[in-house]
Amino acid sequence: MISVVILGSGNVATHLFKAFNQAEDIVINQWYSRRITAIASYKNDVEIIDDLSLIKDADVYILAVSDDAISELSSQLPFENKLVLHTSGSVSVYDIDKKHKRGVFYPLQTFSKEAEIDFSTVPICIETIDKKSYPIIKNLALTIGSPTKRVNSDQRKVLHLAAVFVNNFTNQLYRIGHEITESQGAEFDLLKPLILETAKKVQDLSPFKAQTGPAKRHDKKTIRKHLKLLEDQHHEDIYQLLTTSIQHTHGRKKL
Amino acid sequence: MISVVILGSGNVATHLFKAFNQAEDIVINQWYSRRITAIASYKNDVEIIDDLSLIKDADVYILAVSDDAISELSSQLPFENKLVLHTSGSVSVYDIDKKHKRGVFYPLQTFSKEAEIDFSTVPICIETIDKKSYPIIKNLALTIGSPTKRVNSDQRKVLHLAAVFVNNFTNQLYRIGHEITESQGAEFDLLKPLILETAKKVQDLSPFKAQTGPAKRHDKKTIRKHLKLLEDQHHEDIYQLLTTSIQHTHGRKKL
Predict the structure, then answer these.
(1) Cα dihedral A246, B175, A112, A56 sign
(2) Taking a C-beta distance cutoff of 8 angstroms, is the pair A74, A104 a contact?
(3) How far apart are CA B39 and CA A245, in angstroms?
(4) Beta strand A2-7 with A26-32: parallel, antiparallel or unpaired?
(5) Which of residues 185-204 of B touch A (CB under 8 A)?
(6) d(CA A215, CA A205)
(7) Residue B111 confidence (pLDDT)
(8) Residue B175 contacts A where some CB pair is shorter than 8 Å
(9) β-bridge pairing A101-107 and A48-49
(10) A191–B221: do the CB atoms touch at under 8 Å?
(11) Phi and psi of A142, rounded to 5°?
(12) Cα(A32)–Cα(A74) distance, rounded to whole angstroms?
């Protein structure tokens, strides 16, 4: 049995709470948030607090707070030499106050309040300073069914950066698809199977092999038609840059 | 029973052949390709030809050829007043020779030789000039289990353009994620669940609501870290442009 205290009230904190709460081998001793109203609806499931002086003993403290809050909150914790983890992809493990045993529990996934998460699809990237902390962090991930990967700081930061490309930027391309279709009387819904298939394809095939379309074919006629159809300069810039990028990858001349 | 002749040997032609071949209410009279060797491996399943003068009578002729070949091939067909469809997202239905009954059977999906296709996830966008052709085209799609949508030329072209954003450009972002991780000693495989979840999320949630990350949060510190980490000027340009795009969408100032 691993005992944890969760700190924070954002998406990651909330989804971790739900997963830990359902896991058999984890007990959540407390859930802390500075803004206790944000987690008040869970008060029948767990002890909620907004006062760090009330914090109880636990095996692991999880700082699922915003990047900027990690350092200060870790200093304010009224104990030392306990295992304290943050969940950020980009913050250094050394941002955690050195009075603690420090580590990172970075769930490489997108979390929204609105969407349920199946933690078996959430790789947990684990980073530790002392090796002895590793097994307990790994067990913590396993109890919620997540695959784990031990990474160093550089790898974690690169994964976080790459995640911005494949998640935030990709989602913005979906948004542009939405804008283009809806502004011109077509249905975005028709694109949803394509969106899903595009993501499924690279589960087995490399993105290099999966590529198709006018940019890769260097199909100037279609590219010209598309640029003409685009009404927003901003969309046009993105079209040009990504077309060039595809042609660069696939050994063609620039647009 | 609908009888068809398929013309072309590319990915769309091949996947349509396989789907029609399995469908109960369709008979494939012939499969034509200029390069008969490309389809020779199917000669036990269907009559293959490379000579248009041998073409047989059928209810529907499907020109699954490259955009540039549609017009000429349709003129060369040695008959008239039959239903002839092309499968392109961007070519005008009027590119088909006017001696035929003309229509479009545009499967809004990504096709690769390597990946099997489930046609129940392929919306068929149907365009016709004369209304009488519509029911047979719709039936053709239904026999392979595809949902259908009647569109006009403008809608089809806009869908094709949007498809480039959500498919080709998205796939290029996956490719960049691959380049960034592999060049810096991290595993692209760790990003695959995130890629899938990002696509799944917008099946129910709008891309606007699904957005997260440093650009949306206007998290300058993380954005600066990421730009510093990027080693390729080209990746940096894409990072900047899509960050600005997200901030534009979510009502923030420019980067």
Answers:
(1) negative
(2) no
(3) 33
(4) parallel
(5) 185-188, 190-204
(6) 19
(7) 85
(8) yes
(9) unpaired
(10) no
(11) -65, -35
(12) 13
**CA–CA separation, A220 and A216 (whole Å):** 10
Inspect the interface and report whether the beta carbons of B110 and A215 lie closer than 8 Å. no
DSSP A169: I
Contact B173, A211 (CB under 8 A): no
For all residues of chain B together, what is the average pLDDT?
95
**Which amino acid is present at A25?**
D
| Count of CB atoms situated within 10 Å of the CB of B38 | 16
Q: What is the mean pLDDT of residues B65-77?
A: 96
Report how far Cα A10 is from the mean position of its chain's Cα atoms.
12
- List the one residue out of A132, A127, A134, A135 whose CA is nearest residue A106: A127
Q: What is the per-residue pLDDT across B167-195, written as a single tens digit (0 to 9) for each?
A: 999 999 999 999 999 999 999 999 999 99
Q: How many other CB atoms are found less than 10 A from the CB of residue B225? A: 17
Q: Compute φ and ψ for A87, nearest 5 degrees.
A: -115, 15
Which DSSP state fits B100?
A: S
Domain ranges of chain B: 2-151, 156-249
Please give the backbone phi and psi of residue B94, each rounded to the nearest 5 degrees, phi first: -80, -5
Question: Per-residue b/e over A32-52, b at no fewer than 16 CB within 10 Å?
Answer: bbeeeebbeebeeebebbeee
Q: How far is A171 from chain B (nearest CA, A)?
A: 6
Cα-based angle A59, A61, A65 (whole degrees, multiple of 5)? 165
B165, A176 Cβ separation under 8 angstroms = yes
Picking from B244, B248, B250, B251, the residue whose alpha carbon sits closest to that of residue B223 is B244
Q: Looking at residue B113, what is its pLDDT?
A: 78
CATH value of A2-151 in 2.60.120.200, 1.20.272.10, 3.40.50.720, 3.40.50.2300: 3.40.50.720
Q: If you search the block for the tokens 């469908």, which residue do you land on? A: B23
Coil, helix or strand for B101? strand
Q: Which value does ipTM take for this structure?
A: 0.93
Q: A2 in helix, strand or coil?
A: strand
Q: Is the dihedral of CA B91, B97, B102, B107 positive or negative?
A: negative
Strand ranges for chain B from DSSP E: 2-7, 26-32, 48-49, 60-63, 83-86, 101-107, 124-128, 148-150
Q: What is the pLDDT of residue A255?
A: 45
Percent of chain B surpassing pLDDT 70: 98
CATH value of A156-249 in 1.10.150.170, 3.30.2350.10, 2.60.40.420, 1.10.1040.20: 1.10.1040.20
Chain B residues within 8 A of A193 when measuring between CB atoms: 108-109, 121-123
**Would you call A197 and B108 a contact, using CB atoms and an 8 Å cutoff?**
no
CA distance B94 to A122: 49
Q: Do B156-249 and B2-151 have the same topology in CATH?
A: no
Q: Can you point out the beta strands (E) in B47-141?
A: 48-49, 60-63, 83-86, 101-107, 124-128
